[in-house]
Amino acid sequence: MALTVARAPEVIVKVSRGATSTAGAVAHLRYIHRNGELEIETDEGERLKGRDVEKHIVANWDLDSTRAHGQGPYRGKAGPKPAKLVHKVILSMPKGTPPDKLLLASRDFAREEFALKHRYALVLHTDQDHPHVHLVVKAVSEEGTRLNIRKATLRGWRRSFAQRLREHGITANATERAVRGQTRSGFKDGIHRASLRGDSRYLRERATRIAQDLRNGGLKPSPGKTKLLATRRDVIEGWNAAADALLAAGQVALAEKIWGFIGAMHRPLTTDEQLVGKLEERTRTRERDLEEERTR
């Protein structure tokens, strides 16, 4: 609670689609070690660098045999669904986090979660503002158990990763967005990345529809708004109960911080309401630029 109300940096544990073929696994391993420029570490303590080390890893993990035996369940489409051979995980922290300590914590996390069960390899990247570690995990354990990553799995991984970071002296937290008073965007990763590039057709069409609604009197009621408000009520009730218990235990300072944290929460917004805010900000920026241009 103290970390959350102090707005300690939140860890990011992100899982992408993974690879369903040996070629896909090779390509991803080649990508994360930058075609031999970066060192890649394995669960066996190897530190490999140079071209084609990804082929050594794939052969060592016996992914061809795993692929031959693995077929996913029928999902309503013709033909068997290819099962994942490897999972792709990113462990990340905000700008300013010491990369060496992030790497130490990532090693500890991988060892704690996967050692002697699932083969894995990891690489530290420092070429962006925020340091992050790419972790590749073999989807099937050495005993033949498949790793299925669910929401509960991710929550547990975030908590574990935050604990490993704190053990290395990095302030880190792992709480749900709702508990922090934040509203999740409804955009999928692909849409979000396209929006950052400024070429998301989905967002353009949605913005056009929202602008039309506003011209006609306002946004149409969203079924998600009721759920958002109910979640916020539950969160505030939980925080107030915690503050009351702390106050009764004599921890007045932390209780007061919790009440301040509750008071600073922004109102919960649906995805459409978030877009309205962005459109309004864009309009204000455009008007400000035009005004500056006229006064020059």
Give a description of the structure.
The protein is an alpha+beta fold. It folds into 2 domains: 2-167, BirA Bifunctional Protein, domain 2 (2-Layer Sandwich), CATH 3.30.930.30; 189-294, no CATH class. 50% of the residues lie in helices and 11% in strands. The chain contains 11 helices and 8 strands. The strands form 2 sheets. It has a 6-stranded antiparallel β-sheet, with helices on both faces. Strands 4-5 form a two-stranded antiparallel ribbon. A hairpin with an 8-residue loop joins β4 (71-72) and β5. It is globular, with a radius of gyration of 23 Å. The N and C termini lie far apart (51 Å).
Quickly list its features:
11 helices; 11% strand; alpha+beta; BirA Bifunctional Protein, domain 2; 2 domains
Number of strands: 8
| Through-space gap between termini | 51 Å
- Low-confidence runs: none
- Across the major sheet, the strand order is 1-6-8-7-2-3
Apparent shape: globular
In CATH's first tier, which class of the largest domain applies? Alpha Beta
Number of H/I helices: 11
Helix content: 40-55%
* Relative strand content: 5-15%
Which second-level CATH architecture of the largest domain applies? 2-Layer Sandwich
The largest sheet is: 6 strands, antiparallel
